[in-house]
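Give me structure tokens for this 250-residue protein.
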Amino acid sequence: MSAIWTIAKREIVSFFLSPFAYVVLTAWVLWQGAMFAIFCFFVAGSPVGSASEADPLQMLFGQPPLFFIPLLVFVPVLTMRLLAEETRQGTLETLLTAPVTSTGVVLGKYFAALVFWPALWLPTLMYAWLTSRFGDVDLGRLGATFVGILGVGAYYMSLGVLMSAVAKSQISAAVLTFMCLGSLFAVGILQFMQLDDATLQWIRYVSVWQHMQSFSSGVVDSRYLVYDLSLAALGVFLAVQVLEIRRGEA
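Here you go.
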């Protein structure tokens, strides 16, 4: 456990001490702010009592095509260096020959990634405060939303760690992560097609669109959490297997 913590702490410190981290976080905050402002203007322009009147927070978190597409860029950027940079610098072999298991290495990197993820979303608490100044904020619905965000982040980051383990450079890791997450995200488009009920139910189960629409409305669906955590565990497991293969080659 101490080795895992040491690896995680090293990654967290190196990330937040680098200018790169603040460039990424600033870009994400600007995007979030722009989306929140757009939804606030939309709600402000809606007639009182109309069907179009809605909570801007629910609109913000429940509109994945607008809000979550940028994550297909930000997540690869955040995770690409975790293991791929070790490979590029030639330090991965040294790390693998140290008295730490492949599981420890992957978990250390993964736990660091799980710190990066909430850092992206922390500024949204300010939007909840701003909304509360001019209206009511449903804390239960807000809590459910963040449960969904953490669930999505658990498997997004695990897939990023996996692709970083597979790749030999940061760019390759970023591209692989983008393709993987992009494919999963694109599955949500299929729910708007004319398909049989069984297929549509499967698509909605794996679609982040459906996940966040459910959570942002205040519904914590355990099926979606099981899916998120299962994919997270699978990504970590496969990353460990990749490192085990490399350990055997070292």
